[in-house]
Target: CENP-V/GFA domain-containing protein
Amino acid sequence: MSPSATEKSQAKSSGHKSEDVDGSHNEWKFRAPYKVHTNEDGFNALYEASCHCGRVKYQLSREKPLDAKYCHCTTCQVLHGAPFQWAAIFKKEDINFTHGHHELGWYESGEKTTRHKLPCKVSCVYCRTPIMDEGRNMILLFPGMIKWKSEAERKKFAPSCHMFYEQRVVDIPDGLPKWSGMSGKSDLIGDSQAEDVKKRKREIEEENGENAEKDEKKSKSSKKG
Ligand SMILES: [Zn+2]
Ligand SMILES: [Zn+2]
Model:
């Protein structure tokens, strides 16, 4: 959706140059997750978050993430300077950056560009706190910067699994499912619960069965042609 004339003129009257506002290449600045919500549009702020220096602030309107995970991949190890990373998945409409896209910097690891190109990593331009991964449809927030009002709140963001556990630098024997690679698309390893492992094996067998069926259909139809 293109920004309205009012949105554009507001941006210009608050000191933005037309080259940073006009044109389709600037439209993303006015869309979720960077669209600034006002009291009038009914955004219900349940959580407040701030980067280390305080330049980047956001609010969340959803009580619980759609899912939360720990990622042990080597890319996260490098980009986060940490043994693993904790991410909570939200819809782009669930977040309100109080300064919109301002004070934010982007990094797309494929092209190694700092242009806003999806999927990318988003951080504070000043203190470099990692803020989120912005995907094409979802955002993966790093919840460390949320100001919890209670232990119960933080528990709502508890991860459901570990992924890329094969690349780990530390064992986390917490009994959660541990995927060797992408969650749901690789093997369960480490101290994953026996039931989880069995369930995953059944799923793989079923998937293989379905693929075999598809292959059979394909080979039949190709024989016809
Ligand atoms: Zn900062
Ligand atoms: Zn990762």
